[in-house]
Structure formats: C-alpha cells, structure tokens
Amino acid sequence: MNAAKLAAIVLIVAGTLGLVYGGFSYTKETHKTQLGPIEFSVEDKETVSIPVWASVGAIAIGSLVLLLGGGNKR
Known about the structure:
Strand content: 25-35%
Helix content: 40-55%
Number of helices: 2
Low-confidence stretches: none
C-alpha cells in the first residue's frame, strides 16, 4: 500500500469519526501547589468541537485521493 492510499484512508476515517463524535475533550492541569505535605492541583476540562464542514471535507478529499491516486500501477 503506497503513501497516497494510506493518507486517503486516514482522512476518510478521521472525517467519519469527526461526524460521529463531533469533537473530543481532554483534561489539562493548570496549577499545582504544594504546601508542606498537602498538594493542591487544578484541572480544567477542555472541549474541542470539530466542524461538520471539516469532517465532510476530509472525507471528500480522502475519497478523491483514493480514487485518483491509483494511476501509478506497474
């Protein structure tokens, strides 16, 4: 499998996951303090939304690369 086909498949899968889930969240530790034996930390939950147009675009570009990128056959 060449690099173009692999990239196309990755784009299609990423676009499909973006459409299904719509985004992802992660936890970021912002402050950490230690006062003697006691340790304090603050964690913020961040959410990243993936636009529908980006997901559809990734699927479309991946499909085009998959269909048109197979012209170099030996």
